[in-house]
């Protein structure tokens, strides 16, 4: 009876070829796994709340926020802004008037403002001033809002002092107590309210100003009025 023969020994080149095949298969699996992970991440980013129309809308409270227009309007827009921000000035002077004429004055849109101070320390000073004006007289907020942006200075300088802001309020004839306004600014009376608004922005992905939320849908193409109108019309139709 013949003895059972063992497996033939492989040459060095054959063993090397088999090892290279194993490495290629491992690399292919790694590539496919990487592609799958990237696809999942991209999908999550796309579906995240407020990606200019994509995904689930953010649920942001408007409590304690100044509003212009009918608060029962079918479309509610929240603007996160910094009074030192040049882009916010552009929005206020170039986009807001169109928005007001086309939608706000017709009762179709209500615009809310939330402070998102981040440019400089005096961004907070301006935010405290605006919130103080609002708390004294809600109707005085929007004229003050306009006055600050109309008199905005270089963002690289600390121009938003309490003295300057009170001077602007005085020139705007807001009909408020200017001494109380100065005390509220210097004493940071409404710091917690401003901080709450800022935190709300952070939690909803705000990282620049102005950032708008149209019925909770994030919109940061602030200079594209046609795109904003399209989103507003979509939201009107969804009601």
UniProtKB/TrEMBL annotation:
<protein>
    <submittedName>
        <fullName>DsbA family protein</fullName>
    </submittedName>
</protein>
<keyword id="KW-0472">Membrane</keyword>
<keyword id="KW-0732">Signal</keyword>
<keyword id="KW-1015">Disulfide bond</keyword>
<dbReference type="InterPro" id="IPR036249">
    <property type="entry name" value="Thioredoxin-like_sf"/>
</dbReference>
<feature type="domain" description="Thioredoxin-like fold">
    <location>
        <begin position="63"/>
        <end position="233"/>
    </location>
</feature>
<dbReference type="InterPro" id="IPR012336">
    <property type="entry name" value="Thioredoxin-like_fold"/>
</dbReference>
<dbReference type="Pfam" id="PF13462">
    <property type="entry name" value="Thioredoxin_4"/>
</dbReference>
<keyword id="KW-0812">Transmembrane</keyword>
<feature type="transmembrane region" description="Helical">
    <location>
        <begin position="30"/>
        <end position="48"/>
    </location>
</feature>
<comment type="similarity">
    <text>Belongs to the thioredoxin family. DsbA subfamily.</text>
</comment>
<keyword id="KW-0560">Oxidoreductase</keyword>
<keyword id="KW-1133">Transmembrane helix</keyword>
<keyword id="KW-0676">Redox-active center</keyword>
